[in-house]
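Bug report (template v2)

What were you trying to do?
Predict the complex of my protein with inosinic acid.

What happened?
Run completed; filing so the output is reviewed.

Input:
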Amino acid sequence: MNMSVNASATQPKSSSVSFPSASTMDVLFTQAEIADRVKAIGDEISADYAGQSIVLIGVLKGAAIFLSDLARAIQVNNTFDFVSVSSYGRARVSSGAVKLIKDIDNPIEGKHVILVEDILDTGLTLSYLRGLMLQHKPASLKIATCLDKPERRLVPIEADYVAFKIPNRFVIGYGMDYAENYRNLPDIRLFPEELAGH
Ligand code: IMP
């Protein structure tokens, strides 16, 4: 998610602050564990949509890496598109208002759509996007998320495909960031509690 209005909340306090090295952070899921779960979800989706085509819609930027792996793990024909949203303040602590900054490029009316997200946390982002996508009248709409933090839900929404359920901890890597850093890590790590402000 992009944090447009209250971006300072996720920025370092001053330019002299450096980000801790990922090597100091505990690994929650290794690259191999992630690959196994992505393959399992890919197989499940391929079975569920056998003989059909799917449109995967990724939520920028966090879901980009999960989507690119998932798209290749799905054996049925699939295309992909991306949306981008901003929240007013950090979704974790804000009133939860979400705004679309980039819409889908291609029509999805009558198509089988899967929204692909990095983390289902409070649920505010995906419930907003689900409502928006349903207005386009897809044939079906499901949700795939790499991580699910069920403890933090503020609105009732569940994903159809979940790679891992996790407790209420701030994580980085495999597309997920802290102030735009660490997205490129191949594994998923626990970000230090004292810095996360979580
Ligand atoms: P929510 O479900 O609307 O609360 O928002 C989910 C979004 O919050 C995710 O797509 C991430 O951008 C962000 N987010 C929530 N928890 C974490 C985390 O532990 N690490 C990185 N980003 C997170």
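What did the reviewer find?
The radius of gyration is 17 Å. The pocket of inosinic acid is lined by residues 1, 62, 91, 117-126, 170-172, 176-177 (CB under 6 Å).
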